[in-house]
Amino acid sequence: MTDNNEFNNESRQGKGKFKLRHLPSIIAETYREWMSNSPFRLSAVVAYYAVLSLPALLIIILNSVGAIWGTEVVQGKLSDEFSMALGKDAAAAIEAMIRETQDQEKNTISTIIGIAVLLYGATGVFYQLKISLNNIWYIKPKPKVLIWKIIMDRAQSFAFILVIAFLLLTSFILTAAITALTDFISSQLPDIVLYLAYLLDFIISVAIISLLFALMFKFLPDVKIRWKTVWVGAVLTAVLFVIGKLLLSLYFGQAQPGSTYGAAGTLILILLWVSYSSLLLFFGAEFTYVFAERYGHGIRPSEIAEVDTARKQEN
Fold first, then answer.
1. What are the residues whose beta carbons fall under 8 Å from the beta carbon of 75, sequence distance 6 or more?
2. Taking phi first (over 0 means left), then psi (-120 to 50 degrees means alpha), and beta for anything else, what does residue 301 get?
3. Percent of the chain with pLDDT over 70
4. What's the main place this protein lives (predicted)?
5. What is the distance in angstroms between the CA of the first residue and the CA of the last residue of the chain?
6. Dihedral sign of CA atoms 90, 94, 95, 96 in order
7. pTM of the full predicted structure?
């Protein structure tokens, strides 16, 4: 209780208020910190676990979100998302994977196996993200970490999968509503209103992704961090993510980097996409750290962690 009060008191003191003219120096410092923490190595690790977890994630999403929204609808929307992000060929390969998971004769068995793989693969993704965020924020676990803490970390990672499923369902519903609104506007109202609908779609996408990143920054690492700081970093990361998603889809569509690898092309595209996305996530985390340190909000270790003073001094 005392630690929390000290944290809140230090947070309220502050080191000045943010001003727009500070942004270039904050970005420059963020870039230096980002490069010093080997973001390419960290993103490669996350990409590996993401590929490992993909089949299980598809099973869980189709059986959870599909139970509410409809399996065929969810499958179609996922295919559209993969097509926009990775290209038609990669989307077709993932569609084949989805069809395999929907084989009714082995659906129950595949779901059980999928959950088991999910516990190893998908929780591994978030466990590695946790380690990476701790590393970026110069936090390390205390020498004696109980086994129950490791189990709780895995359970927390599984909870994030459920959060993603919920946010995905919310996104599908809102997207369907906006699509219906857009169809009505295009036939009844001027084009300028149609552009406003597209802007609304963009804002909703950023809002949902911001919420996901905010939850990750707040609850995934072993830290105490104020919501004010969390939202600053989460919104920036979400904007970078949405813009990066668009640029990556254009790059994959034009350059087709996976075509060089033949049958393994889909795997390579997924690795590249997750790796690039992780780089943006880590940049946002670095920005959050720099912002917190500069303006006195602070990022403090939780009860089971401590500051990695040696690494912090090296950088």
1. 62, 66, 95, 98, 102
2. beta
3. 68
4. membrane
5. 32
6. positive
7. 0.80
pLDDT in tens, 62-102: 777 777 777 777 777 777 777 777 777 777 777 777 676 55
Tokens, residue 228? 């004010």
- Whether 122 and 157 have beta carbons less than 8 Å apart is answered as yes
* Six-digit token string for 7: 């944290």
DSSP class per residue in the chain: -HHHHHHHHHHHH-S----GGGHHHHHHHHHHHHHHT-HHHHHHHHHHHHHHHHHHHHHHHHHHHHHHH-HHHHHHHHHHHHHHHH-HHHHHHHHHHHHHHT-GGGHHHHHHHHHHHHHHTHHHHHHHHHHHHHHHTTEEE-S---HHHHHHHHHHHHHHHHHHHHHHHHHHHHHHHHHHHHHHHHHHS-HHHHHHHHHHHHHHHHHHHHHHHHHHHHHSSSEEE-HHHHHHHHHHHHHHHHHHHHHHHHHHHHH-GGGGGGGGHHHHHHHHHHHHHHHHHHHHHHHHHHHHHHTT--EEE-TTEEE-HHHHHH-
Give the number of C-alpha atoms closer than 13 A to the C-alpha of residue 100, restricted to the C-beta side: 10
